[in-house]
Design goal:
8-stranded parallel β-barrel; alpha/beta
Length: 428
């Protein structure tokens, strides 16, 4: 569920008319719903209550410090993939001792920074990485907590760029090598201590079955490592999908009746809890998209319309630099007019101002026949929207706003031209 809906023919976020935000802030602007984030977080906690479950929010999904602060205040831990994300968590009020550090390319500086802040665990992706952490920890006179990411070779049935759990992916260690590697850590790496086991098979999974297959495959290994190395946690990753196509309709019972296959937090929990409870380990869950994806929209203005022989184009002021998912992942986002249109549609491409043919937000889409000057809302933009934004074509980064009931707060000012180049200099 989310908190975006039409009221009196105007699209609202909670109790705020989105046209008011567009008028005050300009566009493009990301708008987040605090209520949606908090509701989804509460729903996830409740669903996993029978387990000793700990949520580690995946910072890469949406890393604005106001969002991180919301998570921290709810006692959430963090799944980080860089030293910069750890810095953000700390400065947003998060607890570094509740951070797990994933990623295949940790640098020496990042490892030292994480050890200095006593993070909960490094989730390691190769033997060489483990040996490097062992060396650095030895030089620092500490023991580094580690887990190894096992690659269970389970197909996630998601886009090829966001699947992570098969033999062809760069992530994790082959299932067949894990036991040998854990024995090597215990025997040869004295500055490490084995704290857990980790896996993650992909992102935006809309079915329960891949999660079940991966857990069933790895569960015997988790039991064995609990006996051999006294591990305290098993991270089962994240990847719970959200609704992109049909997001505004998904609040109705009729929509869910028509989509019984769509994963929910309830169906996810009911499927995995019986498999995990008997193991008796702390279970880490690493949701990012599921907590923030449907909690935001991107406001954009229609600039022009162009009708050609083959297509009609609606040009908007948000580009692939603002939200790259359609170009990069073939990602689908519903696009709705802030001022409601009824029985007024057209088939068109919605395209941005970037000088690339790949700069589109929708293609051959039946949409409201908006005219230049009208505001559109690109839905489900909370995850991998602003966090993947760039200044390509020298376009300043968009503003971000957080709505809380009938009030809203600027959580990132729009970048200025001067700020965009302030770290550049001319040679003497």
């Amino acid at each position: 569920m989310h908190s975006f809906a039409y009221k009196n023919s105007a699209l609202h976020c909670e109790a705020v008319n989105l046209s008011d935000i567009a008028s005050a802030m300009g566009t493009p602007t990301f708008v987040y719903s605090r209520k949606t984030i908090m509701d989804d977080l509460s729903e996830l906690k409740e669903a996993l209550a029978p387990l000793d479950a700990h949520i580690a929010y995946a910072v890469k999904a949406c890393s604005n410090m106001a969002i991180l602060n919301l998570m921290a205040k709810q006692g959430v831990g963090f799944d980080i993939v860089s030293g910069g994300e750890l810095w953000r968590v700390i400065h947003a009020g998060g607890d570094p001792t509740r951070c797990t550090y994933a990623g295949v390319g940790k640098t020496e500086a990042e490892i030292r920074y994480a050890l200095n802040h006593k993070i909960y665990c490094f989730n390691c992706e190769s033997e060489n990485e483990l040996r490097e952490i062992n060396r650095i920890a030895g030089e620092m006179g500490v023991k580094a907590p580690v887990a190894v990411r096992v690659n269970p070779n389970v197909e996630a049935n998601t886009h090829k760029y966001i699947t992570t759990g098969t033999k062809e992916n760069k992530f994790g260690v082959d299932f067949s090598r894990i036991e040998e590697l854990y024995a090597t850590i215990a025997a040869e790496m004295p500055h490490l201590y084995i704290r857990g086991l980790q896996m993650h098979i992909g992102s935006q999974l809309t079915e329960v079955s891949p999660f079940v297959k991966a857990i069933e495959k790895v569960a015997p290994m988790a039991r064995k490592f609990k006996e051999l190395y006294n591990i305290e946690f098993w991270s089962i990753g994240g990847g719970i999908g959200i609704i992109y196509d049909g997001c505004l309709a998904s609040g109705s019972a009729e929509w869910w009746t028509a989509h019984p296959e769509q994963i929910t937090l309830k169906s996810y929990a009911e499927a995995i809890i019986p498999l995990l409870q008997p193991i008796g380990l702390k279970i880490l869950v690493e949701p990012g998209r599921r907590l923030v994806g449907n909690a935001a929209c991107l406001l954009t203005t229609c600039l022009y319309e162009k009708k050609g022989e083959a297509k009609t184009f609606k040009m908007i002021d948000a580009g692939m630099n603002d939200i790259i998912r359609p170009a990069l992942y073939e990602g689908y986002h519903e696009i709705w007019p802030v001022k409601e249109h009824k029985n007024d549609t057209i088939v068109a491409d919605i395209v941005g101002p970037i000088c690339e043919s790949g700069d589109f937000q929708a293609q051959n889409r039946e949409i409201a026949d908006v005219k230049p000057g009208e505001i559109l809302a690109e839905m489900s933009a909370g995850a991998y929207g602003f966090s993947m934004a760039s200044t390509y074509n020298s376009r300043p980064l968009a503003a971000e706003v957080l709505v809380d009931g009938d009030k809203w707060h600027v959580i990132r000012k729009r970048q200025t031209m001067a700020q965009m180049v302030e770290d550049e200099s001319l040679p003497e």
